[in-house]
C-alpha cells in the first residue's frame, strides 16, 4: 500500500498534467482533503517537487497563502545543460544526483540503460571515498557525463 506522501504526490502530478504544467493550491485545503497536517503537504512539496526533478515552487504564507507548482519545460538543450551545471555546482548529494538523472530519463534524453549506468557510476561505488570528497567527486562525474550527452 502506498503511503500518504505518495498519494499526495500523485494527486498533484495529475493536477499538473491536467492544467498544462502549473497549479496553485491552498496548503490547508489539500491537508483537509487528505486528512493530514499541513506540514505533510510541505514535506511532499519540498522533497518531491524539487528543481532537480524539474519543478519550480513558489509559496506565500498567511491567510490568503498559496503554493504554486510549475513543471519546467525543456525548450533549449543548451539552457538546460547550463541550468544543470549551475544546479550541480561543486558538489551534489546522491539523492539530488539521482533526481537529475531521473529527470533526464523522464525527458527522454537518455535511455533506461544509460540512466542505470549513470546511477551506478555516481552511487554506492563512491562509498569508499571519504565523505567530504564524495559529493565533490560525484559532481565531477555527473558534470562529465552531462557534457558528453549535451556537447558531443
How is this structure best described in words?
With 152 residues, the chain is mainly α. The chain folds into two domains: 4-71, Phenylalanyl-tRNA Synthetase, Chain B, domain 1 (2-Layer Sandwich), CATH 3.30.56; 77-150, Transcriptional repressor of class III stress genes, C-terminal domain (Non-ribosomal Peptide Synthetase Peptidyl Carrier Protein, Chain A), CATH 1.10.1200.150. Helices cover 59% and strands 11% of the residues. It contains seven helices and three strands; from the N terminus they run αβααββαααα. A three-stranded antiparallel beta sheet has the order 1-3-2. A hairpin with a 5-residue loop joins strand 2 and strand 3 (66-71). Helix 2 packs across helix 3 (38-48), helix 4 (77-88) packs antiparallel against helix 7 (131-150) and helix 5 (94-106) runs antiparallel to helix 6. The protein is globular. The model has no long low-confidence stretch (mean pLDDT 91). Keywords: DNA-binding, Repressor, Stress response, Transcription, Transcription regulation. Residues 3-73 form the CtsR N-terminal HTH domain. One of its GO terms (molecular function) is DNA binding. Residues 76-147 form the CtsR C-terminal dimerization domain. Belongs to the CtsR family.
* The CATH architecture of the largest domain: Orthogonal Bundle
Strand order of the largest sheet: 1-3-2
Helix-strand pattern, N to C? HEHHEEHHHH
Rounded mean pLDDT score: 91
Q: Main sheet? A: 3 strands, antiparallel
**Domain tally:** 2
Helix content: 55-70%
Amino acid at each position: 500500500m502506498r503511503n500518504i506522501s505518495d498519494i499526495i504526490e500523485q494527486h498533484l502530478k495529475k493536477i499538473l498534467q491536467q492544467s498544462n504544467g502549473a497549479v496553485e493550491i491552498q496548503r490547508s485545503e489539500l491537508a483537509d482533503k487528505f486528512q493530514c497536517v499541513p506540514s505533510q503537504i510541505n514535506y511532499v512539496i519540498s522533497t518531491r517537487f524539487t528543481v532537480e526533478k524539474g519543478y519550480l515552487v513558489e509559496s506565500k504564507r498567511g491567510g490568503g497563502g498559496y503554493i504554486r507548482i510549475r513543471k519546467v519545460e525543456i525548450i533549449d538543450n543548451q539552457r538546460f545543460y547550463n541550468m544543470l551545471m549551475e544546479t550541480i555546482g561543486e558538489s551534489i548529494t546522491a539523492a539530488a544526483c539521482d533526481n537529475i538523472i531521473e529527470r533526464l530519463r523522464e525527458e527522454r534524453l537518455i535511455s533506461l540503460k544509460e540512466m542505470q549506468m549513470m546511477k551506478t557510476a555516481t552511487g554506492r561505488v563512491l562509498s569508499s571515498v571519504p565523505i567530504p570528497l564524495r559529493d565533490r567527486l560525484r559532481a565531477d562525474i555527473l558534470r562529465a557525463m552531462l557534457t558528453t550527452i549535451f556537447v558531443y
